[in-house]
Amino acid sequence: MSSLSGKVQTVLGPIEPSKLGRTLTHEHLAMTFDCCYYPPALCYEATSREPIMMKNLFWIQKNPYSHKENLRLNQEMEAVREELLYFKAKGGGAVVENTTVGISRDMKALRWFAEETGIHIIAGAGFYVEATHSPETRAMSVEQLTDVLVNEILHGADGTSIKCGVIGEIGCSWPLAESERKVLQATAHAQAQLGCPVIIHPGRNASAPFQIIRVLQEAGVDISKTVMSHIDRTLLDKTELLEFAQLGCYLEYDLFGTELLHYQFNPDIDMPDDNKRIRRVHLLVDEGYEDRILMAHDIHTKHRLMKYGGHGYSHILTNIVPKMLLRGITENAIDKILIENPKQWLTFK
Ligand SMILES: [Zn+2]
């Protein structure tokens, strides 16, 4: 047990969990995604280098990872600040900003957003997928990796005294890379030591979440403090989803706002749209899992900001919640998903 027990740790310090309010549990406010640039078809090479404009916006929406400028969310500090204020005006209270090492985490930017907007921001410790691990990270033992994670939570990250309040998003590929397995084991060790929350980015295969939970549990994680992200694009089969739900981790539908014809990272996956996400959330509520569901947008590129005609950080509050109510999900269940579950998850044991 640490001195953080019973508290949530934001970038401005520990707070009482009841202060959080409506919380988005998987977002990015400043990051780069160059690691996942996806070269366009030859005939679109010129388009991929154009500035973002109305004329090419639909193409960028459908091919977000083939446009280099689109992958630089960290160039939009002012737009993100404004959109956080809008989120607050619509009833938002907190954001988990789970940018980790490898995709340009910026602790000072997160502190600035928190100070400027009054939104509670919780920063993420740890490492993104193996493709972004440095040679030093790959060479570390599980014990050394555990020390890095514990240090980012207790003392501060990236040479600052600004502290992380959650481990993750921890990046996993499919198949799982060896250095990712070590990071997962370190995550479990640090979690057990600190009683902190954990959030995982699984590989794009239905077996990935099951394998990850096995690795974490064998290393001693508290599964009730663990979030599996991106369920929407990973567990599409209903039977598999309900089987996974039994394991007891949080199930995060965090790609709200993403409606893609072609999913560049895995063409075998038909990315669900928001209506399908709502139906899945409804199913999980009906099956008794309302205290395990979390929701977010996972904004990580420019085109999803309102500045570029995107849905922004308020889409769930302004558009998705009314549709959930229309489909018969109760206000009580929605409050659990947006307020109570994030609060329970983020509170240190
Ligand atoms: Zn993410």
Molecular structure report:
One of its GO terms (cellular component) is cytosol. The structure is a single chain. This protein is α/β, with parallel strands linked by helices and 349 residues long. It folds into 2 domains: 286 residues, TIM Barrel, CATH 3.20.20; 38 residues, no CATH class. It has 13 helices and 10 strands. It has an 8-stranded parallel β-sheet with strand order 3-4-5-6-7-8-9-10. Strands 1-2 form a two-stranded antiparallel ribbon. Helix 11 links the parallel strand 9 and strand 10. 50% of the residues are buried. The structure holds zinc ion (ZN). The site of zinc ion (ZN) has 6 residues, from loops. The site of zinc ion has 6 residues, from loops.
| Main sheet: strands, sense, barrel | 8 strands, parallel
Q: Could you tell me which ligands this complex binds, including any ions or cofactors?
A: zinc ion
Structural class of the helix and strand makeup?
A: alpha/beta
CATH architecture of the largest domain: Alpha-Beta Barrel
GO molecular function, one term: N-acetyltaurine hydrolase activity
Family: Belongs to the metallo-dependent hydrolases superfamily. Phosphotriesterase family.
InterPro entries: AryldialkylPase_Zn-BS (IPR017947), Metal_Hydrolase (IPR032466), Phosphotriesterase (IPR001559)
Binding site for a divalent metal cation 1: 26, 28, 169, 298
